[in-house]
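Q: How do we represent a protein-ligand complex in a form that can be generated cell by cell?
A: Start from the inputs.
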Amino acid sequence: MDILLTNIGQLATPQGTQARKGKAQREIQLIKSAAIGIEKGKIAYAGPMDDSLSGEKTIDCTGRLVTPGLVDAHTHLVFGGWRQYELALKLEGATYLDILKQGGGILSTVRQTRAATEDELVAKCKGLLDDMLRHGTTTCECKSGYGLSLEEECKQLRVTRRLQKETPMDLVSTFLGAHAIPDEYKDNREEFIRLVCDVMIPKVAADKLAEFCDVFCETAVFTPAETRVILEKAKAAGLGVKAHVDEIDPIGGAELAASASCISAEHLIQASDQGIRDMAAAGTIAVLLPATSFYLDKPFARARRMIDEGVAVAVATDFNPGSSPNLNIQFPMNLACLKYRLTPGEALTAVTLNAAAALNRSGSVGSLEVGKQADIVIWDAPDLEYIFYRYGSNLVHSVIKNGSVF
Ligand code: IZC
Ligand code: ZN
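Then emit the C-alpha cells for the protein with zinc ion bound:
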C-alpha cells in the first residue's frame, strides 16, 4: 500500500454505490480497531487491523474515528461580496423574500458578482474551499445563478471549472440561471425564461460548463409551470436536473420535482404528504438544508417522515451569502440529529453516500470501500456519536483527499 491508516478506533461508513433509503439509511458499518490501505489514490483495503498489511507511509490514527470524506451536495460557492448588511434588516423583521423584492438579496449578490473578475472570484473561492476541506468536505456541488446573463453565468461556471483544476476539492457544477429575474427583465419575465432555455442552456451544455441544471421554484421567483419548462429543456440538452422547491411556501414543488424525474429536490421545508410520496416513488433524493432553516428562523423539513416514507435523505450546507453564510458541514450535521431527529447513522449517510448519490457520484465516493476514491476524514473523536454531540468546534483532525493528506 502507498498509505496505511492503522489504529482506527472506529471506522464508520455506509456501504454501497447507491442512495440508501428507509431503514437502510441508518445501517452503518462500524469496525473497531480498523485499518485502511490506500493505493494510487484509491481505497485498497478497509477492514479490521491486520498485521500482514504494510504501507510505504503509515498514519497511526491513535484510536480516532474515521469516516468517508463529507459531500456537500448543495452550495452557491461562487459569488462576489457578502450580504452582512441584510442582518440588520432581518432583525427589524424583513423576510428573505421582502429583501429580494426590494432589489436586495440575490440581486445584490448578482451586482457584486458581475463587478468581480474571474481571477478575483477564483482567489476568493480558493480560500473558501480550503476552509471547507479543513471542516471535512471533500466533494462539493457548486451552483451558478449570480450572473443571470449569458456572459456572466458562463463567467461564474468558468470559475468553477478553474477551481476544479486548481484545488484538491472535487466540484460538481450546476447551472442555476433561473435563480431570480434580473433587473433588466423585471417587466418581461417570459423573455428571460426564453433566454435561459434557448440561449444559456444550449451554450452551457455545448461547452460542458455544468452537469446539472437547477431552478429556484418559489413564490415571487419561478412558478412550478415555468420550472417544468426550464427543466425539460435542460434534460433535452443532456443535463441532469434538480430544483429548489417548497422552501418558503408549499406550491407543489416536491410533486413537480418527482414528476420531472429530478435526481434531487432541495429544501422541502413545506413539502406536502403527496409530494413526499411522489418523491419516494420516483426515487428523487431529498437534499435538506437545516442550517438555512436555522438562519431564516423557519421550520425544519420533515426529514423523519421522508425517511419513513422511503425517500433517501441527504443533508448539505446551502452555503450562500444570503440564507446560509456557513460553510462548515458539521453544523447542519448536528442540526440533522437535533432538529430532524435523525440517528447518527442516518445523518452520516446523509452527508456521505446519499449526498454523493444526489450528485451522481455514489459509484466513486461516499463510502469507505475498496475501489472508491481515498477521500477520508480522521476525527478528533472516539466514535460516531461523539461528532453529533460535541457541536460547535471543528472536530476534524485531518483529511485525506484522493490519497493526499491535509
Ligand atoms: O443568494 O440568497 N435560496 N437562493 C435560494 C439562495 C438562497 C441564495 C441567495
Ligand atoms: Zn440553494
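The chain has 15 helices and 16 strands. The chain has a mean pLDDT of 97.
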